[in-house]
Write a structure and sequence with these properties.
Elements: E1 8-11, H1 13-27, E2 32-36, H2 38-42, H3 46-55, E3 60-63, H4 66-74, E4 81-83, H5 89-97, E5 102-104, H6 107-117, E6 124-129, H7 141-149, E7 157-163, H8 174-194, E8 200-202, H9 206-212, E9 219-222, E10 243-248, E11 251-255, E12 260-261, E13 267-268, E14 273-278, E15 295-298, E16 301-306, E17 314-317, E18 329-336, E19 339-341, H10 343-350, H11 354-360, E20 367-369
Parallel strand pairs: 1-20, 2-3, 2-9, 3-4, 5-6, 6-7, 7-8
Antiparallel strand pairs: 1-10, 10-18, 11-14, 12-13, 14-17, 15-16, 15-18, 16-17, 18-19
Helix pairs in contact: 1-3, 5-6, 7-8, 10-11
């Protein structure tokens, strides 16, 4: 049997369970929870995360595309799966046949799906998405209201809920954010007056739940908080990081002043130095933009990245960690002693943000679950 790579992603399922409990307490008793597991559960492994979320009693699992839904279904997941974004007609037909919940943002497409499935006996279970101000996906308010008015009038069809995406759930652009919330709530109030229809109303995501500590709708879509991170980079004592990324020192080289490191010699030693090679690179998801900018943790101390990040390796200066040696553990993202590097920090160094960092770790890196 071949040993796993020395570079790997570690996933703490106990921390995930704890975070689900925290989110449930913040959302309140009346709210249902959708665990967002798109993009391979933000790099954490969609099947394992979904199995854990299912065991903790979440109500829905949210994915981006049909293939992600099929992966979970094929793995035996029983929790209802929602495809969060509109798909084209053929893919929508396949999703309906497989029993997934689809998202509709176009009244004309809804009519086409109805015609395509009307004689096949597959129930159409769907959410409608409201365009409330983000200008990405969504029906206009009058189309949504018309769809709700038809609820119950069409056999074999189940409109489950109404959703929107907040562009700024932390309300940093207060005027635009407040306008978007008001737009959605006006639609909701109109719908409630039309019918006691039992629909789910969903505008809450990780940012809004963190900020408000309650749900404004009846269905909360949560990704980042489940994985132990607060959007925007705020620390939380209640949440536990689920992912860490680790490797080991492959080699250490002794440099003289004037020696270069890596492609293009973008780093040249100014003193007697010790430079360690880490066997992972940008093909594994470690950003090339961290060349000569990033840090890792070795023996509880930060070591700076020197030279360009390569496809399969990068180098760090361990001169000031004299006890370091080949085989030492290297924390790329996570904690060692009093030092910590999280996805927010990596994102800032890379000129990116935590969502891209988490979802960017390649499947070349083994996932180890504990």
């Amino acid at each position: 049997m071949i040993n796993s790579r020395p570079s790997f992603v570690e996933i703490d399922l106990g921390a995930l369970k704890s975070n689900i409990a925290v989110v449930k307490s913040w959302a309140g008793e009346g709210a249902r929870i959708m665990a967002v597991v798109k993009a391979d559960a933000y790099g954490h492994g969609a099947v394992k995360v979904s199995q854990t979320a299912q065991s903790e009693g979440v109500d829905f699992l949210g994915v981006a595309f049909l293939e992600e839904a099929c992966e979970l279904q094929n793995a035996g997941i029983r929790t209802p799966i929602v495809i969060l974004y509109p798909e084209d007609d053929e893919r929508s037909f396949e999703a309906v046949r497989r029993g997934f919940y689809i998202t509709i943002s176009d009244q004309i497409q809804l009519e086409r799906i109805r015609r395509g499935e009307s004689e096949k006996g597959h129930p159409i279970k769907f959410f409608v998405k409201v365009e409330s101000g983000m200008n990405r996906y969504g029906m206009q308010a009058d189309e949504v209201i018309a769809a709700v008015e038809e609820k119950g009038a069409r056999p074999g069809e189940d409109l489950v809920g109404v959703t929107t995406n907040l562009a700024d759930p932390l309300m940093r652009s207060a005027r635009l954010a407040a306008r978007q919330v008001d737009n959605f709530m006006q639609v909701m109030e109109t719908i409630k007056q039309l019918s006691q229809n039992g629909l789910y109303y969903s505008m809450d995501s990780s940012g809004s739940i963190w900020k408000n500590r309650h749900a404004d709708g009846t269905l909360v879509r949560v990704g980042h908080l489940l994985y132990g991170l607060v959007p925007g980079g705020v620390d939380s004592r209640e949440l536990k990081p689920v992912m860490s990324v680790r490797s080991r020192i492959a080699e250490i080289h002794d440099l003289r002043p004037g020696d270069g490191v890596g492609y293009g010699f973008s780093y040249v030693a100014s003193r007697q130095s010790r430079v360690a090679t880490i066997p992972m690179g940008y093909a594994d998801g470690y950003p090339w933009s961290l060349s000569n900018k990033g840090f890792v943790i070795v023996r509880g101390h930060r070591a700076p990245v020197v030279g360009r990040v390569c496809m399969d390796a990068f180098m760090v200066d361990v001169t000031d960690i004299p006890a370091s040696q080949t085989g030492d553990e290297v924390v790329i993202m996570g904690r060692d002693s009093q030092e910590r590097i999280d996805a927010h920090q990596l994102g800032r160094w890379a000129g990116s943000f935590s969502y891209e960092i988490l979802s960017g770790w390649s499947k070349r890196l083994p996932r180890i679950y504990k």
